[in-house]
Amino acid sequence: MISSDVIRGYNDTMILSLLLNEPSYGYEISKRIRELTEEKYIMKETTLYSAFKRLETNGFIDAFAGAETNGKPRTYYRITEAGKNYYKDKCEEWEITQEVIEKFIVKENNNEYNKKLS
């Protein structure tokens, strides 16, 4: 399981990624994140809905009522053009972040790994 602290800055990116192809709702997005990460990351409900609120406030997603479930309309979310641009920026940021962090990761099959961790 991955620490939520490690990935916190990319929760929005994961959500937006799942909204690129079609609108969706909270439970389905949460389920997809769990499936795609092979349960290595499970986004808490409070984290998910805080992200929805932040993304909507910033104009990156729109919320709309969908089909009723148990007498109450389900809230769906769709990505906006601003959200697509933000997603693109976050992907570029991730590339740089990954490049920087990789400089400090010593691979297990590397002799340096064995020297440093012995």
Keywords:
118 residues; alpha+beta; Arc Repressor Mutant, subunit A; 3-stranded antiparallel sheet; 3 strands
What general outline do the C-alpha atoms trace?
elongated
Strand content: 15-25%
The CATH architecture is Orthogonal Bundle
Number of helices: 6
Q: What is the name of the CATH superfamily?
A: Winged helix-like DNA-binding domain superfamily/Winged helix DNA-binding domain
Average of pLDDT: 89
- SSE order, as H and E? HHEHHEEHH
Strand order of the largest sheet: 1-3-2
Helical coverage, percent range: 55-70%
Describe the largest sheet: 3 strands, antiparallel
Oligomer: single chain
Task: Please characterize this protein's 3D structure.
This protein has one domain: Arc Repressor Mutant, subunit A (Orthogonal Bundle). The two termini are 25 Å apart. Helix content is 56%, strand content 16%. It is built from 6 helices and 3 strands; from the N terminus they run H-H-E-H-H-E-E-H-H. The longest helix has 22 residues. Helix 2 packs across helix 5. A hairpin with a 2-residue loop joins strand 2 and strand 3.
